[in-house]
Amino acid sequence: MSSSAYRPAMTQARPEATRSVKAVDEYRNTRELNIAAERPLTIYLDRVEVVTLMTLGTQPELLTLGYLKNQGLIRELNEIKSVQVDWDVNAAVVTTFAEDDSWQEKLKNRTVTTGCGQGTVFGNIMEELEGIRLKPLRLKQSRIYELIKNLNRYNEVYKNAGAVHGCALCHDTDIITFMEDVGRHNAVDAIAGYMWLEGISGEDKIFYTTGRLTSEMVIKVTQMNIPVLLSRSGITQMGLDIAKDVGVTLFSRANGKHFLVYNGSEHIEFDVELPPKFSVAHTSS
Amino acid sequence: MSSSAYRPAMTQARPEATRSVKAVDEYRNTRELNIAAERPLTIYLDRVEVVTLMTLGTQPELLTLGYLKNQGLIRELNEIKSVQVDWDVNAAVVTTFAEDDSWQEKLKNRTVTTGCGQGTVFGNIMEELEGIRLKPLRLKQSRIYELIKNLNRYNEVYKNAGAVHGCALCHDTDIITFMEDVGRHNAVDAIAGYMWLEGISGEDKIFYTTGRLTSEMVIKVTQMNIPVLLSRSGITQMGLDIAKDVGVTLFSRANGKHFLVYNGSEHIEFDVELPPKFSVAHTSS
């Protein structure tokens, strides 16, 4: 716990995460199924439009905070007076104490970094990471298994409707917070917003994601100062390269007793006696 | 086939799609596994930097073409003199016949639209879709099954290394082209580039994706004038809402004999006699 106890005034806008709709299956039967919500949320900073995020919408205030922080638009939480989300107009209205009228000018010279590998200001980001070396966190295999077990209780929207990614901030075997969103980068940003608001630091945490370990996912956890990344999915070459540079321990394909450590296995104590087996099939995702 | 036979001069840069790396499994055994490549590709338009895309990199020229088209930066293929990709410097250099020196100015007033629900210029896009109504395509269940079977032969990188999305442009039961990328929007853009280059129109095609049917996926196929979207994964509320507005037929969770049609089931002829069954479990993705 690092930062102050200051909290901006915030709404608690909590719309439905799923909606029941009809679909026709292969038997031509009409079935009623739940699907994940997806809503546009336009962020306004002192009346200037910043961005529109397509989001599940269950934690819009935290998403807004995390987005502003991760984009480097606001440095300190106590600069923010209020975050007010109104789903009637799909807007998150952020007011700063400075009531700055120069955002238009500032935003002009800024390129939004985004998920899915489009729009990244690659040079700048790589420069920012230059020289960052995260302090490694010692881990025990037995505790990782316990954490994976605990994580299975979450992912509510996914279990109900699919089509969302889940992310969690974890400490040892505990899940501090779990966020789901239709955009995986939104889920990460919402966790960044939560950490900012609650004054939680990253250095002893584990970041879990149902999504893949691409360059941008590794970059985001590095910016959050979190030394361990645990994923159910696969990994890309640049995700691995960056993790090696900054020292993020990478667990990929974590599921039940299985995992693959692509970086940082020297920080893991293998304290579990597993039954022998013939081979582990490569499972893709 | 609509546009001219003109083709810009293009490189054929084909780097490796996977790399062999070592990982430590839960038995503490070191294993050699393939992971998907991920590379930054910076697009320059008449010497002005446009964007950096994180990509698998197997079809960089088509990705570049499709990106420029989908972003509305270049209207006609014959405005482009050449597309030259050089992986030594991770650059796609696009030269137009006009050798326009005003891109810097034009790009300033443009916001990049992107995948993963971050950075979307929502208002503009929704305005562009206003009044679009795609001509429905009649489909037979038996032909869809045949297509799904044919699609199983593709997804090479995914089968080898995971961590990529696949997209295909299909006609009836044939796969015209199949693209994989670490970013699903890159795979879509590469197909748009292919259609542009080959003068292929969308109105009688089916678009397949391994990814979810979110708003942005439905918007992209609408812009490509393709009336049918077939996905292995789930669907979001806005993906469905937009599909209903523009008339895109949506197959979700297509796998083997299963599918769920969320919109446009009236255009499907159910011509397959399936064995009776008790129930279909809801499978998430």
Structure, described:
Two copies of one chain form a homodimer. About 2% of the residues of chain A have low confidence. Helix content of chain A is 27%, strand content 30%. Chain A contains eight helices and 15 strands. In chain A, the strands form four sheets. A six-stranded mixed sheet of chain A has the order 10-9-11-12-13-14. A five-stranded mixed sheet of chain A has the order 1-6-7-4-5. Chain A has a two-stranded antiparallel ribbon with strand order 2-3. In chain A, a hairpin with a 2-residue loop joins strand 9 and strand 10. At the A-B interface, strand 2, strand 3, strand 4, strand 5 and helix 5 of A face strand 2, strand 3, strand 4, strand 5 and helix 5 of B.
Summary?
By secondary structure, the first copy, chain A, is an alpha/beta fold. Chain A has helices at 60-70, 103-108, 122-129, 141-151, 156-161, 184-198, 215-223, 237-246; strands at residues 9-10, 18-25, 30-36, 39-45, 48-55, 80-86, 91-96, 139-140, 165-171, 174-181, 206-209, 228-231, 249-255, 258-263, 268-269.
